[in-house]
Design brief:
about 325 residues; alpha/beta; globular; about 20% strand
């Protein structure tokens, strides 16, 4: 078997190396309370895109710190009773994608909510001071603020949970059948969503990002999506005098530390040649989950589309195949 990281037996025991802040649980409990105090001011407008099977809406809601978050929402026409819902989260720098690729779930009697991440390639607002793309530096955004609640990914994680709650409160949605999916950053946000909104009942994260930051640095893989870590140290701590402080602060948004909160059934996908989100970092989160879970491995795949992942996820959500 090709090898990039640890042998499988070691991966299955690996518990991560990135520090967990001492007040981690208090930090997130207070953040969730802050989110729940927000008036989401949900708006739905008929989209220009039309389908004979789906009602399609441009949806906005207000997240923490006042940002307006954009979602493509589709639901079957002529709904009778309550239906399941799928939340979709996209990769780093991307957006919620086309309307067309969501119609398979709608045709199966499900609603879809696909969210644009603030400041990235879609329409969601980053309230950092400007309109439009503010992509570069999202991992380290707020790292030098005295208050760790100013870290941007905290707000992004909360957006996912708020969206789940909004979906669950819709009259047509069965709140016991709200699922989440995504790859890379989308996989990370899928984990965050289920951790912060434990009523989410099934999730399918693929090759999740934002896990075990220090392990990425230890492997000398702070490149590509994690390149911001290298840039940060080169520019602001070139002798690594604050290394422990930096990685501990990043621990607030390290999904391995949120993973024990997940109560959903988990179907996770990992490529063992992934040099962008190394397998050990993904296992750091997976191994801490205390829920029903299954890990599907791709020995010859790197950080890329994993063959059949959408079909397997569909059967998991729609047919209950595990």
């Amino acid at each position: 078997m090709p090898a990039l990281d640890m042998p499988i037996k070691e991966l299955e025991k690996y518990q991560g190396v990135n520090p967990k802040p001492a007040d981690f649980d208090k930090y997130w409990d207070e953040s969730i309370a802050e989110m729940k105090a927000v008036d989401p001011q949900v708006t739905l407008e008929k989209a220009e895109f039309e389908s004979p099977i789906a009602e399609c809406y441009d949806m906005y809601f207000t997240g923490v710190n006042g940002a307006r978050i954009y979602v493509r929402h589709l639901r079957p026409k002529n709904i009778k009773g309550k239906i399941p819902a799928v939340l979709q989260f996209h990769g780093y720098s991307g957006n919620c994608g086309d309307w067309f690729d969501k119609l398979g779930y709608v045709a199966s009697g499900m609603a879809v909510f696909a969210m644009d991440v603030r400041g990235q390639g879609g329409k969601s607002e980053d309230v950092g001071g400007v309109c439009g793309n503010t992509l570069h530096g999202h991992i380290i955004r707020g790292l030098d603020e005295k208050e760790p609640k100013k870290m941007l990914y905290r707000d992004i994680f909360l957006d996912t949970a708020e969206l789940a709650g909004i979906a669950m409160n819709m009259e047509c949605i069965d709140e016991t059948k709200v699922y989440a999916m995504g790859g890379s950053q989308g996989g990370a946000l899928t984990l965050a969503c289920a951790a912060l909104e434990p009523r989410v009942s099934k999730i399918a994260p693929a090759e999740p990002f934002l896990c075990d930051f220090k392990r990425v640095w230890d492997m000398d893989l702070d490149l590509n999506a994690y390149g911001e870590l290298r840039d940060y140290f080169r520019l602001f701590d070139p002798r690594h005098e604050r290394e422990e402080e930096v990685f501990t602060k990043l621990g607030y948004i390290d999904l391995q530390h949120l993973a024990p909160r997940i109560r959903a059934d988990v179907l996770m996908f990992t490529g063992l040649l992934d040099s962008v989100c190394p397998p050990s970092t993904q296992y750091a989160a997976y191994n801490k989950m205390q829920c029903t879970k299954k890990h599907i491995l791709y020995p010859d795949y790197a950080h890329e589309y994993l063959k059949d992942v959408n079909d397997i996820t569909y059967e998991f959500f729609v047919n209950g195949k595990y």
